[in-house]
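Budget justification aside, the reviewers requested a transparent look at the raw inputs and outputs of the sequence design task funded under Objective 1. We therefore reproduce one unedited record. The lines immediately below are the structure tokens for a 202-residue chain.
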């Protein structure tokens, strides 16, 4: 389980003639920022540290992750293909500014309730909260997973107190499957269990 800002690297290049999942989503939002999902890589350690040691980002997960644990977390994300996971970095592209790496999102194998599932999680730097970035990044990830067709259904486990992430799951079509408590870094987390079938009826 990771911050699902809430609650997640592929190395394949984009197909020729096809955009790199960089299209604007959420056109109903005025002046929406352009975001792109790119493979998580070695240079993203600094971003991981910034995210997971931020008390605001980690508030619903028992507080900041100790820095000593993050090299291992980072290494697994860099090598995510080996574990059947997909980790991506959220890149903000706005106007003439240099692209900024401002968050992470992915899907990974987990078993929070003893049953293997494909879990999604995402986190965005606190300075960029409130701009719809997590919402659009998750929508982009869902579209990608639906096209790939090899991870279905997907699950998310935001804490029951994380109103923004729970609302996002509902907005993007997840169904509430129940609640559960999980031990996590020395504390007990009470989470909502959201599930999304990417190919209903298939």
């Amino acid at each position: 389980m990771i911050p699902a800002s809430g609650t997640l690297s592929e190395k394949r290049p984009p197909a020729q003639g096809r955009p790199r999942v960089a299209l604007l989503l959420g056109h109903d939002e005025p002046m929406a920022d352009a975001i792109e999902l790119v493979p998580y890589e070695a240079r993203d350690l600094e971003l991981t540290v910034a995210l997971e040691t931020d008390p605001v980002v980690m508030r619903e997960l028992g507080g900041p992750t100790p820095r000593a644990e993050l090299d291992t977390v980072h290494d697994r994300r860099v090598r995510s293909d080996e574990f059947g996971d997909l980790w991506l970095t959220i890149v903000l592209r706005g106007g003439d500014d240099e692209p900024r790496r401002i968050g992470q999102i992915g899907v990974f194998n987990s078993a929070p309730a003893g049953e293997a599932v494909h879990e999604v999680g995402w986190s965005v730097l606190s300075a960029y909260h409130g701009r719809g970035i997590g919402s659009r990044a998750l929508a982009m990830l869902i579209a990608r997973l639906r096209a790939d067709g090899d991870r279905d259904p997907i699950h998310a486990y935001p804490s029951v107190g994380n109103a923004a992430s729970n609302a996002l799951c509902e907005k993007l079509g997840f169904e509430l499957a129940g609640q559960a408590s999980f031990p996590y870094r020395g504390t007990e987390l009470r989470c909502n269990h959201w599930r999304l079938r990417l190919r209903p009826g298939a």
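The chain has four helices and seven strands. The chain has one domain: 34-196. Computational costs for records of this kind are itemized in the attached budget.
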